[in-house]
Design brief:
With about 210 residues, this protein is mainly alpha-helical. The chain contains eight helices and no strands. The longest helix is centred in the first third of the chain and has 37 residues. It is globular, with a radius of gyration of 18 Å.
Length: about 210
Amino acid sequence: MQFDVWLMFCAVALAAALSPGPAIVLAISNAVSGGMRAVLCSSLGNVLGLLLVAGVSTFGLGALLSTSASAFMFAKYLGALYLVYLGVKQFRKRELVLSAGANAPGQRHRPAGALFREGVLVAVTNPKVIALFSAMFPVFLDTAQPVGAQFVVMTATMMTLSLLCLLGYGVLARSARRWLSVPHRQRWFHRVAGSVFIVMGAGLTALGRNGH
């Protein structure tokens, strides 16, 4: 892959990584609820999910979803249901896990494995991510060069930029933790975050096979 082509890919990938989506909402929620440890665990899960999505897209799942209405509908509603589930769970929360302070006695943390799995599921149940990889990768491929190496470079680039963006959003959200120490603000935060997940899940059902 030529360096100038890679830079163009980086610009497009960065724009995609920065655009609001379920992974970013999850990072923000975990930042104010569980701190940067929670953000890191879920974000690592998310980038692993991106790797899996890139892999299956490479082997033709993206083409299948773009041509098979039934396969696309199944993936779409599966992703929508999971986002709604996350939204309802978020909406029902009553307080922030770290509202008492990072070193408070009896402090409870969500297991790292649960956070990691949640991040993976957010990535792999979103057909828009599959559509993104399927549509974006071929644009930057040079068929005169080894295709496999180009996929590795683009996938690694996308994963790195996504991880950095998620951690960045987490840091920004973490700075709002003091403001969210007031109980009624915590409740409103959970309601807003939960509502965003639910709206995203509902919006996913209107997603067409072309990603719009």
